[in-house]
Structure to design on (74 residues):
């Protein structure tokens, strides 16, 4: 099993998981985001788990939907 994840900076990471356990064993930077300012993000670089976790300083804004027919973008 493998996945492509997009980080907050726009970089794309290839993640390979063990099919039996589901645990990720490989995380490789596939493409650099156009607005990425991290000097550590080089294509082909293996990333540690804590490098792909969301930034704790980033505050998400919840979107509450009461009727699916009237969805509006923020």
């Amino acid at each position: 099993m493998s996945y492509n994840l997009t980080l907050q900076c726009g970089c794309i990471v290839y993640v390979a998981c063990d099919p039996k356990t589901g645990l990720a064993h490989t995380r490789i930077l596939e493409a650099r985001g156009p607005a990425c300012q991290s000097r550590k993000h080089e294509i082909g670089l293996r990333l540690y788990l804590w490098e792909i976790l969301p930034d704790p300083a980033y505050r998400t804004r919840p979107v509450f939907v009461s009727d699916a027919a009237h969805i509006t973008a923020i």
